[in-house]
Amino acid sequence: MAIWLIRAGSHGEHEIKFGVDNRVYVTWDRKLPNLAKLPDRDALFAAMTQAYPGAKPKTVHNWVSQVWPFAHEIKKGDLVVLPLKAQPSVAIGEITGDYRYEPNGPAPFYHWRAVKWLGDAVPRTHFRQDLLHSFGAFMTICRIKRNDAEERIQAMRESNWGPDPLLGYEGEDAEQTQTDEVVPFADLEEQGRDQIAKLIAARFKEHDFTRLVDAVLRAQGYTTHVSPAGPDGGADILAGNGAMGFGGNRLVVEVKSGATAIDRPTVDKLIGAITKFGANEGLFVSRSGYKSNVQRELVTSFFKVRLWTLDDLLAAIFAHYDKLDEDIRAELPLKRVWTVATAEEE
């Protein structure tokens, strides 16, 4: 069993289609030929050179190294890793079909393989940093095998997608080995966010995660009431941004710090709490994200409910960090850094 990284567009724009169709696609344009009819990599190189005459040979070799395995090296039973852009999670599936080519299919979905999704939203914090480095490589398709990746991901599968066995405990790395390699062209911004996410998972567990969300809301100008630890009656936080919390926007906030993605029935309880507490809107904050169908099905509640992933919370923290309480900043010490932007490899 091999592990393959496949992306759903540079910005995750095809994630929903991958999930709904139960397929993974090579999202090149119509110029890419039927890969099944090509005898070897050299034939693909020649075809792509002809189709893209302005491309440099190095670029074409890069494309060939990604596209050729999709049709000729990936096998039934192999696992595919799909890093999600919509939330800080990873979808993992099992390849169930051979390569297929549909020249008349909708653009750019001409080349595909069937997949059975096994874990549709595994939190990134479940993976040790060396695997996240591999997931962050600027490649559309590649095999992941560094540092016993295949055995470790198989162990996660057997534990129903619990944390990587090399993690010291949920959300925090065990001591890093000195043999970890650096993946070329890794996304440094994404790596930084992963490190901050792990720090939050380690230092803000259970009710302390609610305390962090409350601090962010107060930094945004809300007056809040936080329910004590334990049963909350349907609301972890009540927040209003009018004078003394009266008037203005009235929010019911539900906060989940657990290690599993949130399902639709759990979010529906928040919708009921909006009426119960006389609020205008609801905010659901989940450290581990949401099941793949949740955000898609809740479009009809767009003007009523917001679903925050850890990425959304991080964006709010970055925007209002200077206004957070001193004790929060002491527990979550951050600094802004600048680096050269590396263009994504074609």
List the helices and strands and how they pair.
Elements: E1 3-6, H1 15-21, E2 23-26, H2 41-51, H3 57-72, E3 79-83, E4 89-95, E5 100-101, E6 111-123, H4 129-135, E7 141-144, H5 149-158, E8 167-169, E9 172-173, H6 188-203, H7 207-219, E10 223-226, E11 237-240, E12 250-256, H8 264-276, E13 281-286, H9 292-297, E14 305-308, H10 310-320, H11 326-331
Parallel strand pairs: 1-3, 12-13, 13-14
Antiparallel strand pairs: 1-7, 2-6, 3-4, 4-6, 5-6, 8-9, 10-11, 11-12
DSSP strand content: 15-25%
**Could you give the count of β-strands?**
14
Structural class: alpha+beta
Distance between the termini: 28 Å
Principal-axes geometry comes out as elongated
**Rg over alpha carbons:** 22 Å
Query: Which stretches of 5+ consecutive residues score pLDDT under 50?
Result: 169-185
Major sheet description: 7 strands, mixed
Round the mean pLDDT to the nearest integer and report it: 89
Q: Considering DSSP H and I runs of 4 or more, what fraction of the residues is helical?
A: 25-40%
Order of helices and strands: EHEHHEEEEHEHEEHHEEEHEHEHH
Report the total helices. 11
